[in-house]
């Protein structure tokens, strides 16, 4: 809570910053861009119209916070972290990196597979007016726009205790919103570049999810722990080799770094949390011909149907053809 209060106390209204003639031109351009994106989110994507992302905080660190994801050695289900109001999530956020890393070290000693991931933004789900932060601005214009759409989507719909549904929904809004934003600007070159980036990202995600499925079978088997541990090591080695092959494709060289990380269950669980249900939400938006207001209402109706219905929806595009 202390870190959240620090963010709120140090906010400055963006319009006030823009009125300062000494504001550097590059920062002025970025903040003006962010305000344009913010207006578009409410006007065209039916996302909340409030004061979130209309203020700015300069931080002296490269991330707003660091999330810790921990998964048991023979599991793909993250350790839950439970909070008031939002229920249990698949990660725990720390405003100080050293605190996150100490937690990660303790969990590793307890036998968990752990990943510490920097986070540029998070949503307070409308409880406060969330600010833009300097780590967000470091992402570049298209990623910044998507991030604003993603976090505002959490304010529109968030299911306490259901990280997979909430993150898949917000990720789908982020991607469709960015496509709509670029279309509104008539930026055909950016749309083409984005489509190719997403094609590669989807193919890379499929590599990770196939590995996750294979590991799920290994973990569920009746083999000894030693045999499962050996099979796990071998499957991750195959994944690293597959990533290196993947990175040889034109435009995919930036994925090579994944092969040099000691990938573990936490990485696969985290990727699945954000990605696995996005195609189902994309198909839902297509049903409403890109009408975001109708899409949000349909997603809210799904959310009310309970956890089993939500899980079935998220998995629907794994068994049937979806766009």
What does this protein structure show overall?
The chain is mainly alpha-helical. Helices cover 59% and strands 9% of the residues. The protein contains 13 helices and eight strands. The chain has a three-stranded mixed beta sheet. A hairpin with a 3-residue loop joins β4 and β5. α7 packs across α10. The protein is globular. The termini are far apart. The mean pLDDT is 93.
Give a brief description.
With 323 residues, the chain is mainly alpha-helical. It has helices at 2-9, 14-18, 25-44, 97-109, 134-137, 141-156, 163-184, 188-220, 225-246, 265-275, 278-287, 292-303, 307-319; strands at 12-13, 55-57, 65-71, 81-83, 87-89, 92-94, 113-119, 132-133.
**Rg estimate, integer Å:** 20 Å
Which band does the percent of strand residues land in?
A: 5-15%
Helix/strand/pairing category: mainly alpha
Kindly state the percentage of residues in helix.
55-70%
SSE topology string: HEHHEEEEEHEEHHHHHHHHH
Number-wise, the strands total 8
What shape does the CA trace take? Answer: globular
* Strand line-up of the largest beta sheet: 1-2-8
User: What's the N-to-C terminus distance?
Assistant: 41 Å
- Parts with pLDDT < 50 across at least 5 consecutive residues: none
Number of helical stretches of at least 4 residues: 13
Q: What's the story with the biggest beta sheet?
A: 3 strands, mixed
Topology (SSEs and partners):
Elements: H1 2-9, E1 12-13, H2 14-18, H3 25-44, E2 55-57, E3 65-71, E4 81-83, E5 87-89, E6 92-94, H4 97-109, E7 113-119, E8 132-133, H5 134-137, H6 141-156, H7 163-184, H8 188-220, H9 225-246, H10 265-275, H11 278-287, H12 292-303, H13 307-319
Parallel strand pairs: 2-8
Antiparallel strand pairs: 1-2, 3-6, 3-7, 4-5
Helix pairs in contact: 3-6, 6-7, 7-10, 7-11, 8-9, 8-10, 11-12, 11-13
